[in-house]
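call fold(seq) -> tokens
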Amino acid sequence: MTTLTVTRGDAVDPKAFWMALGQRATGMTVVTAEGDDGPTGFLGLSAAHVTAGPPTMLVSVDHRTSALAGIVSRRHFAVNFLPASAVQVADAFGGKAGVSGAARFTQGEWRALVTGAPVFCDALGAFDCVVDDIVQRGDVSIVIGTVVAVASRPDGDPLIFFRGKSCSGLSPIG
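ret:
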């Protein structure tokens, strides 16, 4: 039986923090906005629903991410849940494909729903949001938005991030 490695103290080491966080599988998302200079976006692992009444989402945006300026200035964003088939999209928005800015949107098809934020046409689910609040915490902005449009498809497996790697598909239990 393996045992937990415990880190304690006044300041948890960031490397230990990320190591523990990597033990949680999470769906890979692309967060987008229509910025002042065109479409912008990033690969996001910290996107979640807040409530269904009214439908609300939140995303954590690193202050170094260029997409933050578009989200702040245009007051909108979209969260796109990636399907397992979208590894190239994840690589483009995660900085692994050597492209940046609007060139990332050459991967796959994109369209706008209500706000103008780009929505990935093959997304398993997409949430078009208007910004309600932005909370500063450390080196990120936590952006909270009311969902003004949704899109989903009934088939496909998710692209998952686990232990620092992309994983595709699900193995049902039971």
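The chain is about 15% helix and 45% strand.
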